[in-house]
Design brief:
The chain has helices at about 5-25, 30-45, 65-70, 80-100, 105-115, 115-120, 125-150, 150-165, 170-190, 195-225, 225-230, 240-260, 265-270, 280-315, 320-330, 335-355, 375-385, 390-415, 425-445, 465-470, 485-495; strands at about 450-455, 515, 525-530, 535-540. It is mainly alpha-helical and about 550 residues long.
């Protein structure tokens, strides 16, 4: 295919993908954690922004996420923030596709862009939507280094790899994975001795690291409760943890497939019979078994690699083998070298997390955090191991993901039942409700703050009031129910909620607007009841 035709086809694919992402952005939920990040970015001054959110162990994260989110503060709609995050992910996918494969970049970009698991999880300010594009950018930089052997690329890689650690304390495994992969690359491909390049790299790294220290780590460690940090610490990568490291590297692909893409997690998220018609469960079975078949291929290849290694480096290991190994890597063609670098980086990412006391994915802990690895797994399978059926499987798999995704979009936008999943209600319906409240208050209110109460703990979020009460005195930016709608009232309509930030399980006295789910009973004594799909607005007398 000529270059002109290739880019024309890319423009067609891009238009389809952008339209698709716009509608997926309307399905983001912006629960208490994601919405609180935007609240902090918009309404908390730089001087007071010393922490991020509490993590799952109730320890404050650094302030990198709200600092990053200030980029989106000019947008008056959370839906447009979601769309911007989707664009950020698409840019990272495009860069990775172009760097990793000159011949098949368009096919790779199209296939990765079609993945339902990415389209559904990259529009909110949380781990998946941020770590996935950052992993793509880090992998792309690691791929560029052997070609240019530049210290500047190394310095930029180091700075990008530090970003996850400024968002989450749990981001340190990515830093270590990038560092170890970089060290291996430096050993195999020593950098060029270029004085100008060394000076540029040094200035770039020192400047970037200085900004991170000044804006993130100085305020964090100046204010963090060190006793709380040390009391929540977990085992680090020491002798005795190595088995977890190796276990995760070997079993990560199978965890991705059998625990993320092939079990109840996928069924609940994409093929839930409670929400979608029963026939969609057949789609789920096809989707899951397709991935499982690929996992078996991965297993065969993995066994082959292990036996080849043992055959080459037995009966004993010598230091000379390191240099022999280096020469063998240098002989690889570009495609195989790129594949190897990405594989090493992702394997280290998967291995360091549980080895440092993080979630042990092979035991089923926090499977949603494996989502950033899914597109890399698809790249490994489709563009390396299955070359003999690539021309058939990639179009089939891509078409299935796009078509199934379009169906989910249609059904979610029009679903008016009472089932509330862990993902909650879409932002497009929350915005309609908030716009209605704002207009009603302007017509019938007294001009002061709006007395709105969000009774939205639901079946999955009842723990929020208790967590907020426990930590509210220590941290100012705690979770409160309905934070996204409070944000929209203030951002879109310049209106305050009288009960914003109040931790209440019961309805406060004087509440005029009470928002709950349609599966809940209407509030007694109401003047009017209005439904917005799965949300109910109770307007009181």
């Amino acid at each position: 295919m000529s270059m002109k035709k290739q880019y024309l086809l890319f423009l067609i694919v891009l238009v389809i993908v952008l339209i698709d992402r716009y509608f997926w952005s309307g399905l983001t939920t912006w629960r208490e954690d994601e919405a609180t990040v935007m609240w902090m970015a918009e309404f908390i001054s730089q001087e007071d922004l010393i922490y991020g959110l509490l993590n799952s162990r109730h320890v404050p994260n650094p302030n990198g996420m709200p600092l990053f989110s200030k980029i989106f503060a000019p947008l008056d709609s959370l839906r447009w923030v979601s769309f911007s995050l989707q664009l950020f992910t698409l840019c990272s996918v495009l860069v990775f596709s172009k760097v990793v494969s000159k011949k098949n970049w368009l096919a790779l970009f199209t296939m990765l862009s079609s993945l339902i698991v990415i389209r559904n999880n990259c529009g909110d300010l949380w781990a998946q939507s941020i770590l996935l594009p950052l992993n793509f950018f880090i992998a792309s930089l690691l791929l560029l280094y052997p070609k240019f052997r530049s210290w500047t690329i190394i310095s930029i890689t180091a700075l990008v790899a530090l970003i996850p650690f400024t968002f989450y304390l749990a981001g340190i495994p990515i830093v270590m994975a990038a560092a170890l992969t970089t060290l291996i690359s430096l050993f195999i491909f020593p950098p060029k001795v270029d004085r100008k390049d060394i000076i540029t790299a040094s200035l770039t790294f020192i400047s970037g690291l200085g900004l991170i220290i000044y804006f993130v780590w100085v305020p964090y460690f100046s204010n963090v409760d060190m006793e709380l940090l040390t009391s929540q610490s977990r085992p680090t990568l020491i002798v005795g943890q190595g088995y977890r490291f190796l276990e995760q590297i070997i079993l990560l692909p199978f965890s991705l497939v059998f625990r993320v893409m092939g079990n109840d997690f996928t069924a609940r998220t994409f093929f839930s019979p409670e929400i979608y018609p029963k026939w969609t469960s057949t789609l789920g079975v096809v989707y899951q078994y397709f991935f499982k078949a690929q996992a078996l291929i991965w297993g065969v290849i993995l066994i082959k690699v292990v036996f080849t290694f043992l055959k080459t480096y037995t009966p004993k290991f010598k230091l000379d083998y390191l240099f022999t190994f280096r020469e063998q890597i240098r002989k690889l063609n570009v495609e195989d070298l790129n594949f190897t670098i990405v594989l090493v980086f992702i394997a280290f990412c998967g291995g360091f997390t549980p080895a440092m006391g993080g979630f042990r994915w092979t035991s089923g802990a926090r499977l949603d955090l494996l989502i950033p690895f899914v597109p890399f797994f698809c790249y490994f399978i489709f563009f390396k191991f299955n070359k003999w059926i690539t021309k058939f499987t990639i179009p089939l798999f891509t078409a299935f993901n796009f078509i199934a995704g379009f169906y989910f979009l249609y059904f979610q936008y029009n679903y008016k039942g009472d089932v509330i999943t862990g993902a909650d209600v879409s932002i497009v319906h929350k915005e309609k409700l908030i716009d209605y409240i704002a207009e009603d208050w302007k017509r019938n209110g007294n001009g002061g703050p709006i007395p709105a109460h969000f009774d939205m703990a639901g079946p999955h979020w009842g723990f929020i009031p208790s967590i907020t009460k426990k930590y509210d005195k220590r941290f100012n930016n705690s979770y409160t129910l309905g934070r996204s709608m409070d944000y929209m009232l203030k951002k879109r309509h310049n209106l305050d909620n009288l009960f914003e930030g109040k931790v209440r399980k019961s309805t406060p006295q004087g509440a005029k607007y009470i928002i709950n789910y349609t599966y809940q009973k209407p509030v007694a004594g109401l003047l009017k009841e209005i439904r917005f799909n799965r949300l109910r607005l109770n307007i009181m007398n």
